[in-house]
Amino acid sequence: MPDLLLELFSEEIPARMQAKAADDLKRLVTDKLVAEGLVYEGAKAFATPRRLTLTVHGIPARQPDLKDERKGPKIGAPDAAVQGFLKATGLTSLDQATIQKDPKKGDFYVALIEKPGKPAIDVLADILPVIVRTFPWPKSMRWGERSAKPGALQWVRPLHSIVATFGIDTEEPEVVAFEISGIKAGQMTRGHRFMAPDEISVRRFEDYEAKLYAAKVVLDPQRRKDIILADAKTLAQAQNYALVEDQGLLDEVSGLVEWPVPLMGSFDQDFLSIPGEVIRATIRANQKCFVVSDPATGKLANKFILTANIEASDGGAAITAGNERVIRARLSDAKFFYDTDLKTKLEDRLPKFDQIVFHEKLGTQAERIARIERLAAEIAPLVGADVEKAKRAAKLCKADLLTEVVGEFPELQGLMGKYYALAQGEDASVAAACEEHYKPQGPTDRVPTDPVSIAVALADKLDTLVGFWAIDEKPTGSKDPYALRRAALGVIRLILNGKLRLSLDDLLDSAAIEIEADREFKKLQGTVEKLQDLHFERDALARSEYKRIRERIVRRSHGVQSSMETRERIDEYLPDLLFFIFDRLKVQLREQGARHDLIDAVTAVDAGDEIVEVQDDLVALVSTIEALAAFLATDDGKNLLAGTKRAANILRIEEKKDGRSFNGAPDASLYAQDEEKALAAAIDRAKAEAGAAVASEDFAAAMTAMAGLRPAVDAFFDKVTVNADDKAVRENRLKLLGEIRAATRAVADFSKIQD
Question: Is pTM, for the whole model, over 0.90?
Answer without folding.
Answer: no
